[in-house]
Write a structure and sequence with these properties.
Layout (H helix, E strand, L loop, with lengths): L6 H6 L7 H16 L2 E2 L7 H5 L7 E5 L24 H14 L11 H4 L3 E5 L4 E2 L11 H15 L4 E5 L1 H6 L9 E5 L4 H4 L9 H11 L8
Parallel strand pairs: 2-3, 2-5, 5-6
Antiparallel strand pairs: 1-4
């Protein structure tokens, strides 16, 4: 597999994808897909970059790894394909979004392509996973790559909103330059964290839109 990116990302990540570790990563991913059932489909591994160009980027949401059930993952963190039951974490995201924004209708699809197309990078720390085996590709070098992506965004962009949900994402976002970006942190939307009072009431959706508006950017239609 020779990965191709949205041209704006191809330019920004040109040096990174030429590094030896990235070649090793792609080779390891190819072997995993040849020998095991893995998700998302290989052609969607870099979907987060395809839907959201670097030039249009406004918001970054950091997840851990793709859903590991059949036909669930579509290359965007927290997102599932149309027709798939909305997972518990995403259901809690939608619930907080509705309460925060005062909207009436609960989304019927967990497909977050509509967010990505508005300038939200839905980035998992690992971009692939084995079926029925969460975090199974953590040992690959996806983390090195996605750390580099976050660092590039922090360095090259200004006034980006980073939504950091849970301790794992907080570690991934530790080096974001908070003097020129807005970093909003809370607990993870998973039922365990949310039921402990660490998720609901964070009002990240309205805070994101207020910040974007203050910087002269279009608000997100959540």
């Amino acid at each position: 597999m020779q990965p191709t990116f949205n041209p704006s990302w191809q330019f920004i990540l040109a040096d990174e994808i030429q590094k030896p570790y990235f070649s090793d990563l792609i080779k390891s991913v190819d072997e995993e897909y040849q020998n095991h059932s893995c998700f998302p489909p290989k052609e969607l591994l870099f979907a987060a970059f395809d839907y959201c160009s670097f030039d249009d980027l406004k918001v970054v949401i950091i997840g851990q790894d793709p859903y590991h059930g059949f036909n669930e993952a579509n290359g965007l963190c927290f997102s599932v394909n149309d027709g798939i039951k909305i997972p518990p974490s995403l259901r809690n995201i939608f619930r907080e979004m509705n309460e925060d924004l005062g909207t009436i209708f609960f989304p019927t699809s967990g497909n977050l392509e509509r967010w990505a197309k508005q300038g939200i990078l839905l980035l998992n720390a690992s971009l692939s996973v084995r079926m029925d085996s969460p975090n199974s590709h953590k040992h690959l070098k996806w983390g090195t790559f996605t750390d580099a992506v976050i660092q590039k965004i922090s360095e090259e962009k200004e006034n980006i909103v980073f939504l950091i949900w849970g301790s794992f994402a907080q570690k991934k976002g530790a080096k974001i330059d908070r003097s020129k970006h807005l970093v909003l942190e809370s607990g993870h939307p998973s039922p365990m964290s949310a039921n402990q009072g660490k998720w609901f009431g964070n009002k990240h959706f309205s805070q994101t839109n207020r910040y974007l508006k203050s910087k002269g950017k279009n608000e997100i239609e959540w």
